[in-house]
Specification:
The structure is a single chain. The chain is α+β, with helices and mostly antiparallel strands. 30% of the residues lie in helices and 25% in strands. The strands form two sheets. The protein has a five-stranded antiparallel beta sheet.
Length: 266
């Protein structure tokens, strides 16, 4: 892990133009359990696989509601995600108090991106060791954004981050053309199937280790759009969603094993 004195802080470039501390933070994201996000013309869905460090512990929370129109899922250090989510909640509240309207999704994502990038300019700080998928709805429609430890943010149609996420991304790429016109239920089904693709052979999706977050808009009789507030499905609420999504599917073959569980990384 020692890189000739170029990895002692997050502000020094190596001769190859790399900042190793940011790369190490990205590795923490890759060790977290996988989370998937999908966006259509009307809804955004977050699907996450939860971990428990041991049989005696509870499952780590993976999806966090920020506001009625906004939520996120995480992969990496849960403590860093808690700090960023609390910051986002304050910004969302400040927007309502100052301007009387919900904060636009792109603006709040840019704010956490700026906050993370600032850590790469101060010697005493370190990068956030967490990746986020931010889902929300504003006046311009549904949005899904990816946040990386470097501070880079980008809008996505579908995305997967975390351990073994490549197989989930392969599923998303295979069905990408159909997401835009998907309804709420179909989008959840695609998300859970993509999540299932990332599992090792000895694991299954259950109501204990899976959770779903949904936010979107629906049309009223007068043609106006109505917000469907961010809702988290967890525990027994997951049973009908899993039954519908996994009905008639078989366990995909793939390599076994994966990064080891860690109490701090989820």
């Amino acid at each position: 892990m020692f890189r000739n004195n170029y990895d002692n802080d997050a502000i020094t470039f190596s001769p190859q133009g790399r900042i190793f501390q940011i790369e190490y933070a990205s590795e923490a994201v890759k060790q977290g359990s996988v989370t998937v996000g999908l966006c259509s013309k009307t809804h955004v869905v977050l699907v996450a696989l939860k971990r428990n460090a041991e049989d005696l512990s509870s499952y780590q929370k993976k999806i966090i509601g920020i506001d009625t129109h906004l939520g996120l899922s995480l992969a990496g250090l849960a403590s860093d995600a808690r700090v960023l989510s609390n910051f986002m909640k304050r910004q969302a509240l400040a927007s309502k108090m100052t301007y009387g309207r919900p904060i636009p999704i792109e603006r709040i994502v840019d704010q956490i991106g700026d906050r993370a990038q600032t850590n790469t300019q101060n010697y005493s700080n370190r990068p956030y060791g967490v990746g986020l998928l931010v889902a929300g709805v504003d006046d311009t429609g549904p949005h899904l954004f990816e946040f990386q430890p470097s501070g880079m943010t980008q809008e996505m149609v579908a995305c997967a981050i975390g351990a073994r996420s490549q197989m989930a991304r392969t599923y998303l790429e295979r069905h990408l053309a159909s997401f835009a016109d998907c309804g709420r239920e179909d989008l959840v089904t695609h998300g859970l199937k993509a999540l299932k693709e990332s599992l090792s052979q000895d694991k299954e999706l259950t109501v204990e280790n899976a959770s779903v977050g949904i936010v979107g808009v629906s049309s009223t009789e007068g043609g106006k759009r109505k917000l469907e507030g961010f809702r988290l499905y967890d525990g027994e609420e997951m049973a009908p969603l899993l039954e519908r999504a996994l009905e008639g599917t078989t366990k995909p073959e793939g390599e076994t094993g994966g990064p080891g569980d860690n109490m701090d990384i989820s």
